[in-house]
Amino acid sequence: MLGVAAYEPADQFDVTIGLRGRWIVVELLGELDLTTAPRLESEVTAALDMPGDPRLALDLAGVTFCDSSGLAAFIRLWRNVQQRAGEFVLLRPQEYLLRWLEITGLRSRIDVRDDLADEDTGLADLASA
């Protein structure tokens, strides 16, 4: 008899939100999938309620896995920022994720960078801003 393995949600997914210069920077760590993408969107959307035109950077260097739910979250956040006349950047995606962005055509629509060259490298606490 064949057994069916139960789906195990990602063991670890962390979202750290802070300020780097004029940017809201969201550092992600772990697996971005069906179970974790809603948390990302919820936390980032709350951070976007700051006054002014938002400048949002998602730092993807720590993302070890990303499925279509994660890509859909990127699209929704990007559109949210666009509607507020802001800027949206994906930072430091790993090769597999960069390939996903190219295959889906998102690479040509969403700004992808290695860093925020014109900004301070430290991440300040968003609550203290």
UniProtKB/TrEMBL annotation:
STAS domain mapped to chain residues: 24-126
Classification via InterPro entries: Anti-sigma_ant, STAS_dom, STAS_dom_sf
GO molecular function term, any single one: anti-sigma factor antagonist activity
Superkingdom to which the source organism belongs: Bacteria
Entries under Pfam families matching the protein: STAS (PF01740)
Family indicated by similarity: Belongs to the anti-sigma-factor antagonist family.
Protein name, entry field: Anti-sigma factor antagonist
Organism for this UniProt entry: Actinomadura craniellae
